[in-house]
Write a structure and sequence with these properties.
10 helices; about 280 residues; six-stranded antiparallel beta sheet
């Protein structure tokens, strides 16, 4: 994945030409390396940025374009400084995350200037603030073709099950020319769609009053930070995922039942949940 990031950092355009499908782009987008317009089927490489992360004792993540030239320049900036301490953390499915630690925030801001990179403070809050609400993300759509072989999302198991007719509200999908289409049947039996599949999942789960988000406070011995926990098979909308990942600059830890986003403060988790029509449990 590091090699993939090097390659796309020098390109831009149609994602299907440069990336092996959208799944590879999802991790790069969540980590802040790509900006993806799903409606226009277009991506671009993000400008390099040094992102100060709250609650990390003056640690900053380095995101965005990661060309060989940029990494060489970064190494020179670190070598010339007595106040920057680099480290990296591997991600299971994406490129490694790069960090700088410093005794003063001014050292990180100066490093950003020398790198010709943006200097961002608390990017998770900024991203979360522009997350659309679920109501604004949905729009009317045509019904599936009568001959379409439909499947409906089971809100309890989060599994797709074949159905003969769309007899009840919920999220439906079918395939046409090897591409999956998704539509939400609302309570008034009207069909709706969204550019981001995550919103359709949450709309269907909200119909069934199915909670799939929770928040856990940092442990008293600091073995684990604040965490946003998402049921494993439920995709977050792309901006929600990016906000959650931006809290730590790490992809979520995946368990058998969930995805765990680390260092997500309660106010960020509350805002994400509210925009998606979900309620979090009261703070522990």
């Amino acid at each position: 994945m590091d090699f993939l990031l090097y390659e796309v950092s020098a390109q831009r355009g149609d994602a299907h030409n440069a990336l092996a499908g959208w799944r590879l782009a999802n991790d790069l987008e969540a980590l802040g390396h790509l900006d993806v317009d799903y409606r226009a089927n277009f991506w671009s490489v993000s400008r390099p940025a040094v992102c100060l992360l709250p609650g990390t004792s003056l640690c900053a993540a380095i995101v965005g374009s990661r060309t060989h030239y940029f990494l060489e320049h970064l190494g020179n900036v670190i070598d010339d400084s007595q106040d920057l301490f680099p480290f990296e953390i591997e991600n299971a499915t994406g490129p490694r995350s790069l960090f700088l630690k410093a005794p003063e925030s001014s050292h990180l801001e100066d490093a950003a200037k020398r790198l010709d990179a943006a200097y961002l403070i608390d990017p998770a809050a900024s991203i979360a603030s522009i997350l659309p609400s679920i109501g604004s993300a949905l729009r009317p759509a045509a019904a599936p073709h009568p001959d379409a072989e439909l499947e409906r999302l089971d809100p309890e198991s989060i599994e797709w099950k074949p159905v003969h007719q769309p007899a009840e509200p919920g999220l439906y999908r079918w395939e046409h020319q090897r591409l999956s289409s998704h539509r939400l049947l609302d309570a008034n039996l009207g069909w709706q769609m969204a550019d981001d599949l995550g919103y359709l999942y949450f709309a269907a789960l909200n119909q069934a009053e199915r909670a799939v988000l929770s928040w856990k406070a940092a442990t008293t011995n600091f073995d684990a930070p604040d965490r946003l926990v998402v049921t494993k098979r439920v995709p977050l909308p792309s901006l929600a995922s990016r906000a959650a990942v931006a809290s730590s600059a790490l992809l979520p830890h995946v368990t058998e039942t969930s995805r765990v986003y680390r260092n997500v403060r309660r106010e960020i988790a509350d805002h994400i949940a509210r925009q998606l029509g979900q309620d979090l449990d009261p703070p522990a």
